[in-house]
What we know:
Layout: H1 39-46, H2 53-72, H3 78-85, H4 97-105, E1 112-115, E2 118-121, H5 134-174, H6 176-192, H7 203-216, H8 244-248, E3 277-278, E4 288-289, H9 298-303
Antiparallel strand pairs: 1-2, 3-4
Amino acid sequence: MFTTVPYRTAPPPYRTAHNYDRTAPSSYPSPSRIPPFPTALQHYVVHLDRISPVIFLIVICNTLSIVISSLLSTAIPPKVDEAFKQYRYVPYTSLTHAARSRAYLRGEESSFVFTPEGLTAKGLDRSNELTILTVDWIAASRSAEERTLHYWGEERSSALASHHAVVLDIGRTHGWSVAMHYDVQQRELAHANHEHNLAGLDVAALALANSRVILLSPHPSLPAPSTKRSAPSDFPSSPRKKTHFQSSTHCFRCGAPGHLPADCTADVTAAGKPVAALASNAKSKHALATPTGKHFCFNWATHSSCTFGANCRNAHACSLCGDASHGAGSCKSRG
């Protein structure tokens, strides 16, 4: 590649900024002293016959690393940014680092594609959005908050940030799959109905997301019926335990199964207490209120625990029997 110039006994002095002596290898610049790109590359391309091939190789490697880094640290693709501008639903998988790099390298930045009918808007890929990794989702949520603030102001950006905090809390208490179903469901609703407020927890939406995950989870297959008759036993078979789905559909207002609080018509609970009133000023129609008007905490009602602890603004008590040691989901008086 390079023409080798033989060493001479007395090389003439070079009138350049870097007066390197070919006869003194110790005078070559160390890699840490190489000027930054593009200054280094311009200098060494002009003076190929005056430098060591090793130094030139180091310069080339540094230059390639800078170019590759600039390619990988790409901005949000224009078609995704256009969706934020139009307040359309954006799957967070399209905001991951891998998706941005893939869109840049494959030339997928455009918001439109040519078809026989003319220009058609491209859709965003929603595959695998429910299985996005937590770290990727958190990074994507920060980008979504920034774009929402840029195009739609502080109010919608703050509501989205509040929603993201709720999703992370659901991920800790109910699992990441439930959190992703809740996230997608709520953001779809917000983009379909601009009056929908994303801030805060929607209890009914969480119950629906939890039920969906339970229904979609794989169930063990039943064994094939045997033609052989089993030997008689003197011991009765043990009662079957209720599944999580059965327990999750009990009404927290009366304790009976098969309906939710807003559809409850009972006057007394399974514990013989008057039913709790529906919270008229709550975001969810299924929220319940204590006699003093304080809302029952849904996390406490479901798990008898709450991540907010003493800082929770809602009541930590059973809406069926009034006991403060457990929530309605763990009350023994349920039907």
